[in-house]
Amino acid sequence: MIDTPVIVHTHRQPTAVIHLTIPRDQIQVVMGPAIQEVMGVVGAEGIIPQDALFAYHLTMSPDVFDFEVGVPVAELIAPNGRVIPSHLPAAKAARTVYHGPYEGLAEAWGKFDQWVADNGYEPVGDLWEVYQAGPETGDDSSKWRTELNRPVK
């Protein structure tokens, strides 16, 4: 389900994003159109994404997601409608890759967080997912890959 986690040191990465604060149960309704909007603006401006789509969760509660959805870019973009410049942080982070459908992400995060705790790391603040391979790669969801990143002390 998840690869053996590793500790990495990330670098601050400019991004083009839409910031959303939504009820948790609206994620499947909101995410697709937001991705299309970001990619439309990036494409129209001739910007080449530097990596895969991601969701950067600033805060999470049982009822609300406060997050950015977007793509890494080479340099900060000018705001365009809801698409704004942002960044992924420079951080010491635990990282793994989950293999499977998006419906299994909650369980994957649970196993990943257990590894973080079992290995003596303390999570700090935010987290992000990078959608390395998803529905655009085919219908076999067992081949989908989502990178999970959890900053730690």
Per CATH, which architecture? Alpha-Beta Barrel
Percentage of residues in DSSP E strands: 35-45%
Q: What's the total count of β strands?
A: 8
Instruction: Tell me the CATH superfamily.
Output: Regulatory factor, effector binding domain
Q: Oligomerization state of this entry? A: single chain
Task: Please provide the ordered H/E string of secondary-structure elements.
Answer: EEHEEEEHEE
Class of secondary structure makeup: alpha+beta
Domain AraC effector-binding: 3-153
Region (Disordered): 134-153
Protein name: GyrI-like domain-containing protein
Pfam family, one: GyrI-like
Characterize the structure shown:
This protein is of the alpha+beta class. The longest helix is centred in the first third of the chain and has 18 residues, at 27-44. It is globular. It has a single domain, classed as Regulatory factor, effector binding domain (Multidrug-efflux Transporter 1 Regulator Bmrr, Chain A, Alpha-Beta Barrel). It has an eight-stranded antiparallel beta sheet with strand order 1-6-8-7-3-4-2-5. The two termini are 25 Å apart. Strand 3 and strand 4 (64-72) form a beta hairpin. Helix content is 21%, strand content 39%. The relative contact order is 0.25. It is built from two helices and eight strands; from the N terminus they run ββαββββαββ. The model has no long low-confidence stretch (mean pLDDT 95). It has helices at 27-44, 105-118, and strands at 6-10, 13-23, 54-60, 64-72, 84-88, 91-99, 127-133, 145-151.
